[in-house]
Amino acid sequence: MYTEEASTARRRRCPPSATNGLLCLAVSGGVAAGAIVAPSLDLAIGVKLALVLALVMVPIAIADLALFKVHRRESTGLKTPEQSLNEQDLARVLVKCAGFYGTLLCIACLYWAFPLYDSEYYKPFFELLAIGAPPILICAPFFFWFVDRRMVAPRDGYWHAGLLFLAKWRHVDLGELRIHALGWLIKAFFLPLMIGELAVAMRWLGRHPVEDAFSHIVGAVSWVAQLSLYVDLAFVATGYVVTLRLLDSHIRSVNPFVLGWGVALICYQPFWSVISSAYLQYGDNIGWQDWTKGNQVLMYAWGVTIIVVKLLWAWSTVVFGLRFSNLTHRGIITGGPFRLTKHPSYICKNLSWWLISVPFISQQGPLEALNHCLLLLGVNAIYFARARTEERHLSSDPAYVAYALWIREHGVFRWIDHVIPWLAYRPPAAAEQASMKDADKPRVALAE
Protein backbone atom coordinates (compact mmCIF):
# COMPACT_ATOMS: atom_id res chain seq x y z
CA MET A 1 0.00 0.00 0.00
CA TYR A 2 1.30 3.46 -0.92
CA THR A 3 2.27 5.59 2.05
CA GLU A 4 4.18 8.83 2.42
CA GLU A 5 6.88 6.98 4.38
CA ALA A 6 7.33 4.42 1.58
CA SER A 7 7.54 7.23 -0.98
CA THR A 8 10.18 9.03 1.07
CA ALA A 9 12.21 5.81 1.39
CA ARG A 10 12.16 5.37 -2.41
CA ARG A 11 13.28 8.98 -2.99
CA ARG A 12 16.03 8.89 -0.37
CA ARG A 13 19.51 8.36 -1.77
CA CYS A 14 22.66 7.26 -0.02
CA PRO A 15 24.94 10.28 0.52
CA PRO A 16 28.29 10.25 -1.27
CA SER A 17 31.24 8.93 0.69
CA ALA A 18 33.98 11.27 1.86
CA THR A 19 36.68 8.94 0.55
CA ASN A 20 37.29 7.14 -2.69
CA GLY A 21 36.91 3.46 -1.87
CA LEU A 22 38.88 2.18 -4.86
CA LEU A 23 41.83 4.46 -4.06
CA CYS A 24 41.87 3.31 -0.44
CA LEU A 25 41.66 -0.33 -1.50
CA ALA A 26 44.55 0.11 -3.95
CA VAL A 27 46.68 1.73 -1.25
CA SER A 28 45.84 -1.10 1.15
CA GLY A 29 47.16 -3.54 -1.44
CA GLY A 30 50.46 -1.66 -1.43
CA VAL A 31 50.54 -1.74 2.37
CA ALA A 32 49.85 -5.49 2.36
CA ALA A 33 52.65 -6.04 -0.17
CA GLY A 34 54.94 -3.91 1.95
CA ALA A 35 54.09 -6.05 4.97
CA ILE A 36 55.88 -8.94 3.30
CA VAL A 37 58.97 -6.85 2.56
CA ALA A 38 59.22 -4.39 5.48
CA PRO A 39 59.93 -6.88 8.30
CA SER A 40 62.96 -8.23 6.44
CA LEU A 41 64.53 -4.79 5.91
CA ASP A 42 67.56 -4.07 8.07
CA LEU A 43 66.14 -0.85 9.47
CA ALA A 44 65.24 0.45 12.91
CA ILE A 45 61.64 -0.15 13.92
CA GLY A 46 60.94 3.57 13.97
CA VAL A 47 62.07 3.92 10.35
CA LYS A 48 59.95 0.95 9.28
CA LEU A 49 56.90 2.42 10.96
CA ALA A 50 57.52 5.79 9.30
CA LEU A 51 57.68 4.08 5.90
CA VAL A 52 54.41 2.25 6.54
CA LEU A 53 52.60 5.45 7.52
CA ALA A 54 54.04 7.24 4.49
CA LEU A 55 52.85 4.40 2.27
CA VAL A 56 49.29 5.14 3.42
CA MET A 57 49.50 8.90 3.75
CA VAL A 58 51.35 10.07 0.63
CA PRO A 59 49.34 8.47 -2.19
CA ILE A 60 45.97 9.23 -0.59
CA ALA A 61 46.93 12.83 0.23
CA ILE A 62 48.20 13.45 -3.31
CA ALA A 63 45.09 11.93 -4.89
CA ASP A 64 42.76 13.78 -2.51
CA LEU A 65 44.33 17.11 -3.38
CA ALA A 66 45.12 16.64 -7.06
CA LEU A 67 42.22 14.47 -8.24
CA PHE A 68 39.36 14.83 -5.76
CA LYS A 69 40.03 18.46 -4.72
CA VAL A 70 39.03 17.80 -1.10
CA HIS A 71 40.50 21.16 -0.07
CA ARG A 72 37.65 22.85 -1.94
CA ARG A 73 34.91 21.20 0.09
CA GLU A 74 32.73 23.44 2.19
CA SER A 75 33.32 21.17 5.19
CA THR A 76 37.02 22.17 5.32
CA GLY A 77 36.15 25.67 6.45
CA LEU A 78 38.55 26.98 3.79
CA LYS A 79 37.79 29.60 1.20
CA THR A 80 37.29 28.65 -2.43
CA PRO A 81 39.76 29.90 -5.05
CA GLU A 82 37.19 32.51 -6.09
CA GLN A 83 37.21 34.11 -2.64
CA SER A 84 39.88 36.57 -1.60
CA LEU A 85 42.42 35.52 1.01
CA ASN A 86 42.43 36.92 4.54
CA GLU A 87 44.75 39.76 5.29
CA GLN A 88 48.07 38.56 6.57
CA ASP A 89 47.89 38.47 10.38
CA LEU A 90 51.23 37.41 11.79
CA ALA A 91 50.09 37.93 15.37
CA ARG A 92 47.21 35.49 14.93
CA VAL A 93 49.53 32.92 13.38
CA LEU A 94 51.94 33.26 16.29
CA VAL A 95 49.09 32.76 18.77
CA LYS A 96 48.14 29.56 16.91
CA CYS A 97 51.74 28.40 17.05
CA ALA A 98 51.71 29.02 20.80
CA GLY A 99 48.55 26.91 21.01
CA PHE A 100 50.12 24.10 18.97
CA TYR A 101 53.45 23.99 20.80
CA GLY A 102 51.75 24.44 24.19
CA THR A 103 49.42 21.52 23.46
CA LEU A 104 52.34 19.29 22.50
CA LEU A 105 54.20 20.31 25.66
CA CYS A 106 51.20 19.30 27.80
CA ILE A 107 51.05 15.91 26.06
CA ALA A 108 54.80 15.41 26.50
CA CYS A 109 54.37 16.08 30.23
CA LEU A 110 51.65 13.42 30.41
CA TYR A 111 53.89 10.86 28.68
CA TRP A 112 56.68 11.74 31.11
CA ALA A 113 54.42 11.58 34.19
CA PHE A 114 52.68 8.25 33.55
CA PRO A 115 54.87 5.15 34.16
CA LEU A 116 52.80 3.25 31.58
CA TYR A 117 54.73 4.93 28.78
CA ASP A 118 58.08 3.68 30.08
CA SER A 119 57.19 0.12 29.07
CA GLU A 120 58.82 -1.72 26.19
CA TYR A 121 55.53 -1.75 24.31
CA TYR A 122 55.63 2.02 23.69
CA LYS A 123 59.28 2.24 22.59
CA PRO A 124 58.44 1.95 18.86
CA PHE A 125 56.11 4.95 19.20
CA PHE A 126 58.82 7.12 20.75
CA GLU A 127 61.32 5.97 18.11
CA LEU A 128 58.83 7.02 15.44
CA LEU A 129 58.25 10.29 17.30
CA ALA A 130 61.98 11.01 17.27
CA ILE A 131 61.92 10.75 13.48
CA GLY A 132 58.67 12.56 12.77
CA ALA A 133 58.54 15.29 15.42
CA PRO A 134 61.45 17.53 14.26
CA PRO A 135 60.14 18.19 10.72
CA ILE A 136 56.61 18.71 12.06
CA LEU A 137 57.81 21.20 14.66
CA ILE A 138 59.83 23.10 12.05
CA CYS A 139 57.11 23.16 9.38
CA ALA A 140 54.19 23.97 11.69
CA PRO A 141 54.49 27.81 11.58
CA PHE A 142 54.61 27.80 7.76
CA PHE A 143 51.58 25.51 7.60
CA PHE A 144 49.62 27.69 10.04
CA TRP A 145 50.48 30.78 7.99
CA PHE A 146 49.40 29.10 4.75
CA VAL A 147 46.09 27.79 6.11
CA ASP A 148 45.24 30.86 8.22
CA ARG A 149 44.97 33.09 5.15
CA ARG A 150 42.48 30.67 3.60
CA MET A 151 40.21 29.98 6.59
CA VAL A 152 36.65 31.23 6.66
CA ALA A 153 36.84 31.45 10.48
CA PRO A 154 40.56 31.69 11.31
CA ARG A 155 40.09 31.89 15.08
CA ASP A 156 40.02 28.12 15.58
CA GLY A 157 40.90 25.81 18.44
CA TYR A 158 44.64 26.46 18.08
CA TRP A 159 44.02 30.19 18.41
CA HIS A 160 41.96 29.75 21.57
CA ALA A 161 44.54 27.34 23.01
CA GLY A 162 47.21 29.92 22.26
CA LEU A 163 45.24 32.57 24.14
CA LEU A 164 44.98 30.17 27.08
CA PHE A 165 48.74 29.54 27.18
CA LEU A 166 49.45 33.26 26.78
CA ALA A 167 47.12 34.02 29.73
CA LYS A 168 44.65 36.01 27.61
CA TRP A 169 41.73 34.12 29.11
CA ARG A 170 39.05 36.75 28.59
CA HIS A 171 38.81 36.02 24.86
CA VAL A 172 38.94 32.20 25.06
CA ASP A 173 35.94 30.34 23.60
CA LEU A 174 35.49 27.37 25.93
CA GLY A 175 33.54 25.42 23.31
CA GLU A 176 36.32 25.65 20.74
CA LEU A 177 38.93 24.97 23.41
CA ARG A 178 37.04 21.87 24.59
CA ILE A 179 36.95 20.34 21.11
CA HIS A 180 40.64 21.15 20.63
CA ALA A 181 41.67 19.66 23.97
CA LEU A 182 39.56 16.51 23.71
CA GLY A 183 40.64 15.93 20.11
CA TRP A 184 44.29 16.06 21.08
CA LEU A 185 43.66 13.93 24.17
CA ILE A 186 42.12 11.25 21.95
CA LYS A 187 45.09 11.44 19.60
CA ALA A 188 47.57 11.32 22.50
CA PHE A 189 45.92 8.22 23.97
CA PHE A 190 45.22 6.18 20.85
CA LEU A 191 48.22 6.95 18.61
CA PRO A 192 50.90 5.38 20.88
CA LEU A 193 48.59 2.40 21.42
CA MET A 194 48.05 1.81 17.72
CA ILE A 195 51.72 2.31 16.84
CA GLY A 196 52.64 -0.24 19.50
CA GLU A 197 50.14 -2.74 18.07
CA LEU A 198 51.39 -2.05 14.55
CA ALA A 199 54.96 -2.79 15.66
CA VAL A 200 53.82 -6.07 17.24
CA ALA A 201 52.05 -7.11 14.03
CA MET A 202 55.11 -6.13 11.97
CA ARG A 203 57.39 -8.27 14.11
CA TRP A 204 54.98 -11.22 13.92
CA LEU A 205 54.96 -11.05 10.13
CA GLY A 206 58.75 -10.87 10.22
CA ARG A 207 58.87 -14.17 12.10
CA HIS A 208 56.25 -15.86 9.90
CA PRO A 209 56.96 -15.66 6.17
CA VAL A 210 54.15 -15.70 3.61
CA GLU A 211 54.80 -19.41 2.98
CA ASP A 212 53.08 -20.11 6.31
CA ALA A 213 49.80 -19.06 4.73
CA PHE A 214 50.03 -21.98 2.30
CA SER A 215 51.10 -24.66 4.75
CA HIS A 216 47.68 -25.47 6.24
CA ILE A 217 44.32 -23.81 6.81
CA VAL A 218 45.25 -23.10 10.45
CA GLY A 219 48.44 -21.36 9.33
CA ALA A 220 46.51 -19.50 6.63
CA VAL A 221 44.00 -18.19 9.16
CA SER A 222 46.72 -17.02 11.54
CA TRP A 223 48.75 -15.35 8.79
CA VAL A 224 45.81 -13.61 7.12
CA ALA A 225 44.50 -12.48 10.51
CA GLN A 226 47.84 -10.84 11.30
CA LEU A 227 48.14 -9.33 7.83
CA SER A 228 44.64 -7.86 8.01
CA LEU A 229 45.41 -6.49 11.48
CA TYR A 230 48.64 -4.97 10.13
CA VAL A 231 46.82 -3.22 7.29
CA ASP A 232 44.02 -2.14 9.62
CA LEU A 233 46.46 -0.61 12.10
CA ALA A 234 48.46 1.13 9.35
CA PHE A 235 45.33 3.05 8.30
CA VAL A 236 44.21 3.61 11.90
CA ALA A 237 47.56 5.06 12.97
CA THR A 238 47.74 7.25 9.88
CA GLY A 239 44.26 8.55 10.60
CA TYR A 240 45.34 9.76 14.04
CA VAL A 241 48.38 11.50 12.54
CA VAL A 242 46.73 13.25 9.59
CA THR A 243 44.09 15.51 11.12
CA LEU A 244 44.51 18.40 8.66
CA ARG A 245 41.91 20.90 7.52
CA LEU A 246 43.65 21.14 4.16
CA LEU A 247 42.88 17.45 3.56
CA ASP A 248 39.39 17.79 5.03
CA SER A 249 40.40 15.24 7.66
CA HIS A 250 40.27 17.56 10.67
CA ILE A 251 38.11 16.95 13.75
CA ARG A 252 34.73 18.64 13.63
CA SER A 253 33.30 17.48 16.94
CA VAL A 254 34.00 15.06 19.76
CA ASN A 255 31.56 12.52 21.17
CA PRO A 256 29.81 14.42 24.01
CA PHE A 257 28.43 11.38 25.85
CA VAL A 258 30.13 10.00 28.97
CA LEU A 259 28.79 6.52 28.19
CA GLY A 260 30.31 6.78 24.70
CA TRP A 261 33.73 7.50 26.15
CA GLY A 262 33.37 4.77 28.76
CA VAL A 263 32.44 1.94 26.42
CA ALA A 264 35.08 3.03 23.90
CA LEU A 265 37.99 3.27 26.32
CA ILE A 266 37.36 -0.04 28.12
CA CYS A 267 37.86 -1.81 24.78
CA TYR A 268 41.54 -0.77 24.77
CA GLN A 269 44.58 -1.26 26.97
CA PRO A 270 45.30 -0.80 29.77
CA PHE A 271 41.60 -0.94 30.67
CA TRP A 272 40.64 -4.01 28.64
CA SER A 273 43.11 -6.37 30.34
CA VAL A 274 41.54 -5.53 33.72
CA ILE A 275 37.92 -5.78 32.53
CA SER A 276 38.36 -8.93 30.46
CA SER A 277 40.33 -10.92 33.02
CA ALA A 278 38.07 -9.98 35.93
CA TYR A 279 34.64 -10.03 34.28
CA LEU A 280 34.58 -11.11 30.64
CA GLN A 281 36.96 -14.06 30.26
CA TYR A 282 34.85 -15.97 27.75
CA GLY A 283 37.28 -18.62 26.44
CA ASP A 284 39.24 -21.63 27.63
CA ASN A 285 41.95 -23.64 25.91
CA ILE A 286 39.72 -24.87 23.08
CA GLY A 287 39.89 -22.93 19.80
CA TRP A 288 38.22 -23.36 16.45
CA GLN A 289 41.04 -25.59 15.16
CA ASP A 290 40.62 -27.98 18.11
CA TRP A 291 36.86 -28.19 17.67
CA THR A 292 37.05 -28.88 13.92
CA LYS A 293 40.12 -31.13 13.98
CA GLY A 294 38.23 -34.34 13.28
CA ASN A 295 36.36 -32.94 10.26
CA GLN A 296 38.50 -31.56 7.43
CA VAL A 297 35.52 -30.15 5.51
CA LEU A 298 34.27 -28.27 8.56
CA MET A 299 37.79 -27.11 9.42
CA TYR A 300 38.38 -25.61 5.97
CA ALA A 301 34.89 -24.09 5.76
CA TRP A 302 35.25 -22.57 9.24
CA GLY A 303 38.76 -21.33 8.52
CA VAL A 304 37.76 -19.70 5.22
CA THR A 305 34.85 -18.00 6.99
CA ILE A 306 37.26 -16.54 9.56
CA ILE A 307 39.53 -15.30 6.76
CA VAL A 308 36.63 -13.59 4.97
CA VAL A 309 35.45 -11.94 8.19
CA LYS A 310 38.98 -10.73 9.00
CA LEU A 311 39.42 -9.24 5.53
CA LEU A 312 36.05 -7.49 5.77
CA TRP A 313 37.11 -6.13 9.15
CA ALA A 314 40.27 -4.64 7.63
CA TRP A 315 38.34 -3.29 4.64
CA SER A 316 35.97 -1.50 7.02
CA THR A 317 38.95 0.50 8.28
CA VAL A 318 40.75 0.89 4.96
CA VAL A 319 37.75 2.66 3.42
CA PHE A 320 38.21 5.51 5.90
CA GLY A 321 41.42 6.54 4.15
CA LEU A 322 42.98 9.30 6.25
CA ARG A 323 39.88 9.90 8.36
CA PHE A 324 39.79 7.13 10.97
CA SER A 325 39.51 8.08 14.65
CA ASN A 326 37.62 6.93 17.70
CA LEU A 327 35.21 9.29 19.44
CA THR A 328 35.35 12.04 16.82
CA HIS A 329 33.31 13.36 13.92
CA ARG A 330 35.47 13.47 10.81
CA GLY A 331 32.90 12.85 8.13
CA ILE A 332 30.60 10.20 6.64
CA ILE A 333 31.83 7.01 5.03
CA THR A 334 29.19 5.35 2.89
CA GLY A 335 31.28 3.21 0.55
CA GLY A 336 32.80 -0.25 0.81
CA PRO A 337 31.27 -2.40 3.58
CA PHE A 338 29.38 0.67 4.83
CA ARG A 339 27.23 0.35 1.71
CA LEU A 340 25.93 -2.90 3.16
CA THR A 341 25.45 -2.03 6.81
CA LYS A 342 26.28 0.40 9.57
CA HIS A 343 29.19 -0.49 11.83
CA PRO A 344 30.66 -3.27 9.62
CA SER A 345 33.89 -3.22 11.63
CA TYR A 346 32.08 -3.93 14.90
CA ILE A 347 29.99 -6.66 13.29
CA CYS A 348 33.02 -8.42 11.80
CA LYS A 349 35.10 -7.98 14.94
CA ASN A 350 32.47 -9.52 17.20
CA LEU A 351 31.64 -12.29 14.74
CA SER A 352 35.33 -13.22 14.49
CA TRP A 353 35.51 -13.70 18.27
CA TRP A 354 32.65 -16.20 18.14
CA LEU A 355 34.26 -18.03 15.23
CA ILE A 356 37.77 -18.19 16.71
CA SER A 357 37.07 -18.84 20.41
CA VAL A 358 34.02 -21.11 19.90
CA PRO A 359 32.72 -20.34 23.41
CA PHE A 360 29.87 -22.80 22.93
CA ILE A 361 32.46 -25.62 23.31
CA SER A 362 34.16 -26.12 26.66
CA GLN A 363 36.32 -28.78 28.29
CA GLN A 364 34.30 -28.33 31.46
CA GLY A 365 30.93 -29.19 29.99
CA PRO A 366 27.82 -27.45 28.63
CA LEU A 367 27.17 -25.31 31.71
CA GLU A 368 30.61 -23.70 31.43
CA ALA A 369 30.07 -23.29 27.69
CA LEU A 370 26.83 -21.45 28.41
CA ASN A 371 28.73 -19.19 30.81
CA HIS A 372 31.34 -18.42 28.14
CA CYS A 373 28.61 -17.58 25.63
CA LEU A 374 26.97 -15.20 28.09
CA LEU A 375 30.30 -13.52 28.79
CA LEU A 376 31.00 -13.04 25.07
CA LEU A 377 27.50 -11.63 24.71
CA GLY A 378 28.60 -9.14 27.37
CA VAL A 379 31.49 -8.10 25.13
CA ASN A 380 29.06 -7.83 22.22
CA ALA A 381 26.86 -5.60 24.38
CA ILE A 382 29.76 -3.20 24.94
CA TYR A 383 30.18 -2.81 21.18
CA PHE A 384 26.44 -2.40 20.77
CA ALA A 385 26.61 0.46 23.27
CA ARG A 386 29.52 1.95 21.33
CA ALA A 387 27.49 1.83 18.13
CA ARG A 388 24.45 3.44 19.77
CA THR A 389 26.39 6.28 21.40
CA GLU A 390 28.26 6.93 18.15
CA GLU A 391 24.96 7.16 16.29
CA ARG A 392 23.65 9.66 18.84
CA HIS A 393 26.77 11.76 18.29
CA LEU A 394 26.74 11.51 14.51
CA SER A 395 23.03 12.20 14.18
CA SER A 396 23.81 15.90 14.58
CA ASP A 397 24.99 15.70 10.96
CA PRO A 398 22.13 15.48 8.40
CA ALA A 399 24.39 13.49 6.08
CA TYR A 400 24.73 10.72 8.65
CA VAL A 401 20.98 10.70 9.25
CA ALA A 402 20.38 10.33 5.52
CA TYR A 403 22.90 7.48 5.37
CA ALA A 404 21.45 5.67 8.41
CA LEU A 405 17.91 5.96 7.05
CA TRP A 406 19.05 4.68 3.68
CA ILE A 407 20.71 1.69 5.35
CA ARG A 408 17.51 1.09 7.32
CA GLU A 409 15.73 0.56 4.01
CA HIS A 410 18.49 -1.04 1.92
CA GLY A 411 21.04 -2.60 4.31
CA VAL A 412 21.62 -6.35 4.35
CA PHE A 413 20.36 -6.56 7.95
CA ARG A 414 17.22 -4.47 7.42
CA TRP A 415 15.08 -7.53 8.19
CA ILE A 416 16.28 -7.42 11.80
CA ASP A 417 14.57 -4.07 12.26
CA HIS A 418 11.28 -5.69 11.31
CA VAL A 419 11.82 -8.60 13.69
CA ILE A 420 13.09 -6.41 16.57
CA PRO A 421 11.69 -2.92 15.92
CA TRP A 422 13.46 -1.23 18.84
CA LEU A 423 16.81 -1.88 17.12
CA ALA A 424 15.82 0.28 14.14
CA TYR A 425 17.58 3.62 13.75
CA ARG A 426 15.34 6.55 14.71
CA PRO A 427 16.79 10.02 14.24
CA PRO A 428 15.43 13.24 15.72
CA ALA A 429 12.51 14.43 13.57
CA ALA A 430 14.20 17.71 12.67
CA ALA A 431 17.39 15.89 11.69
CA GLU A 432 15.45 13.56 9.38
CA GLN A 433 13.88 16.49 7.55
CA ALA A 434 17.24 18.24 7.20
CA SER A 435 18.82 15.05 5.87
CA MET A 436 16.45 15.03 2.90
CA LYS A 437 17.76 18.43 1.87
CA ASP A 438 21.44 17.92 2.59
CA ALA A 439 22.05 14.24 1.77
CA ASP A 440 23.48 14.91 -1.69
CA LYS A 441 25.97 17.55 -0.58
CA PRO A 442 29.62 16.37 -0.49
CA ARG A 443 30.50 15.98 3.17
CA VAL A 444 33.15 14.32 5.24
CA ALA A 445 33.16 10.94 6.84
CA LEU A 446 32.03 10.28 10.33
CA ALA A 447 34.90 8.21 11.56
CA GLU A 448 34.20 6.37 14.74
For the record, give the distance between the C-alpha atoms at the N and C termini, rounded to a whole number: 38 Å
Q: Could you estimate the helical fraction of the residues in percent?
A: 55-70%
The helix-strand sequence is HHHHHHHHEHHHHEHHHHH
| Beta content | under 5%
- Give the number of domains: 1
Mean pLDDT across every amino acid position: 91
Q: Order of strands across the biggest sheet?
A: 1-2
Q: So how many helices?
A: 17
Structural class comes to mainly alpha
Q: Shape from CA axes?
A: globular
| Largest β-sheet summary | 2 strands, antiparallel
Low-confidence stretches: 442-448
- What does the radius of gyration come to? 23 Å
**Count of extended strands:** 2
Short description:
The protein has helices spanning 4-11, 21-37, 45-66, 90-113, 123-148, 157-165, 174-207, 217-241, 258-265, 271-278, 288-291, 296-318, 344-357, 366-394, 398-410, 414-419, 429-438; strands spanning 253-254, 328-329. It has 448 residues and is an all-alpha fold.
Keywords:
17 helices; two-stranded antiparallel ribbon; 448 residues; mainly alpha; single chain
What does this molecule look like?
The protein is globular. The protein has helices spanning 4-11, 21-37, 45-66, 90-113, 123-148, 157-165, 174-207, 217-241, 258-265, 271-278, 288-291, 296-318, 344-357, 366-394, 398-410, 414-419, 429-438; strands at 253-254, 328-329. The chain has 17 helices and two strands. The two termini are 38 Å apart. It is 62% helix and 1% strand. By secondary structure, the protein is mostly helical. It has one domain. A two-stranded antiparallel ribbon has the order 1-2.
